[in-house]
Amino acid sequence: MADLSLKNVSRHFGGFAALKDLSLDVREGEFVSLLGPSGCGKSTTLGLIAGLDQPTSGRIMVGGRVVADGDNGTFVPAEDRELGLVLQSYALWPHMTVRGNISLPLEIRKVPKKRRGELVEEYLSLVEMSDYVDRYPHELSGGQQQRIALARTLVYEPVVLLLDEPLSNVDAKLRERARTWLRRLQRHFAVTTIFVTHDQSEALTMSDRVAVMSEGRLVQFGTPEEVYARPGDPFVADFVGSSNLIKGVLEIAGGDARLVVGDRTIRVQKPQAIDAGGPVTMAVRPEKIRVLAPGDDRDNVLDIEIKDSDFLGARSLYHADLGGQAIRFESRANDLRGPVRVGFSADDCFVFRG
Q1: Assign residue 82 a region: left if phi > 0, alpha if psi is -120 to 50, beta otherwise?
Q2: The pTM of the whole model exceeds 0.85
Q3: Which residues of the chain, if any, have pLDDT below 50?
Q4: Which residues lie below 8 Å from residue 256, measured CB to CB, with a gap of 6+?
Q5: If DSSP codes are grouped into helix, strand and coil, which group holds residue 168?
């Protein structure tokens, strides 16, 4: 296994900067997700690591070895990087059986025939597909093809595993099981893994750390708990999970900080390095807002009026108005209507400049 390091990596296509000065250090054996919306640069990053493309500038190192340097022209071809890549489409050879697909990378590496057979059986067992050894890809479900693609990649023991949205082609119920299975397999091999996804629930449930990307830049890198509980800016607060983003003016008196929204004030965490009197954006997650019973109290108590609701099964998401700005909250009660009193803690309110 190996660690991975990207230092000030950029990729330009003509006048368009797909990746902007990205620096990222991944520890040996770590599972890191590149998370962000379409077009944010995560697949570009994966392609640069894999050797499918060259950086315009910056350096990429695998296990201390420079595999690409856009500043001096160093470039190690993909086949010489000892990396494993699983694509969204799985890219199985349609004319080969499962056995043939898994055996092929071993043949290319001139592994003796007897050993190839042993490895095929071993890795099919690890992905729980031993009974399908003589089937062709078109005879397998999407989830089964995914497992074969992963076995084919792991069988030659890559130093880094690269996964390009491998769960996107399976249905929602199977995807939940696949997350658990894939994470367990990654831990079994202790292989350094880069996982590209736009699904924040996948990133949060599977990763040791999450790299959140937006418009070609890395905007936050930390554990799932850090990224969710302490978002670094409004984009992260709203993309990882969801947040109410309320604009107002910051007031600070002594040790207390408040957001002024029209004729209302909301107690918030005292922000670092933001002066009072300027425009700010507050983020508070819908699940942190509670409907209050008579006599209940919170740091912030607001009377709002419900405008609409979304039934989500075990709970409902309610849409309301706060000083002309939209606010959402969740409740297990599915029949709320009209005016309600809600409350939330100042500790759950994050303030960002602007």
Answers
A1: left
A2: yes
A3: none
A4: 267, 270
A5: coil
